[in-house]
Amino acid sequence: MAAKSAISGEYIIQREESGSIVVYRIYDNAKGALREVAEEKNFPFDANWNTRQFGSKICKEFGDGKQATVGGYHIRVQDSGSIEIYRTYDNTKAALREISEKVGFEVDPNWNTQQFGSKLIDFLEK
Hints:
By secondary structure, the chain is α+β, with helices and mostly antiparallel strands.
């Protein structure tokens, strides 16, 4: 459960009650994210597929047809047929650096991931 969180563009930074930091990216461009998945897995795709077709094919190839997890990408075909995709990061500190660069947040290289994430959340809440 999240103790504290902040949103910056497509990113959600969350501090869990345990103190650990998790970064999620919820893509505005789902088709672009699906392309990233396909390229990562060398999955051939047709540029003419729409997002629903593309997401369904990825879920069939790498999951149970309704959802799939490929690396840090989590893809789900919703009941309406639309595609939901988000990403979690194995390297949380690198994701925090990426967000910091985008928002102009100055980073202390001595911070651990928990300090970094908490300070970035506080910065974004202002």
